[in-house]
Amino acid sequence: MMNVFAEAPQGIQTAPHDPRIVAAGYQVAVREVDLSQVRDKESLMLAFLRGLALTESFGRNWDALYDVLTDPDARPARFALVLCDYGHFRRRQRQLGAELEQVLLGAQRDAAAQGRALWLLAEEPVTDPRHW
């Protein structure tokens, strides 16, 4: 499999196995956002609040999320967002998922325009019984 961090970010990509270990070799900071408990926009914003270690002052809306992802002072120049349970989230929350994707892809384009890199990595839970 191609190493995702060897290339410029392109949309929402499949997370490598052990993304933190792989990212470390490329000086990429990693944060995980767990989408498995998201039921609505409020719980989605809470998942990002936790995953990005944001303060309670985080506005919990699309503009605020976009801002924290594109703020050069808040994020390293090489940053990966691992979206845990992303596929299931998209199937459960089609409308919310589509809105989130627009914000994430917009932030990724904005970062690239600033000469920064924002990887968006979808990670699925391990369902293979051999891992139990």
TrEMBL record:
InterPro entries recorded = Barstar, Barstar-like_sf
Q: What Gene3D superfamilies does the entry give?
A: Barstar-like
Which family is it part of? Answer: Belongs to the barstar family.
Q: What is this protein called?
A: Barstar (barnase inhibitor) domain-containing protein
Domain (Barstar (barnase inhibitor)): residue spans on this chain: 29-121
User: Taxonomically, which superkingdom?
Assistant: Bacteria
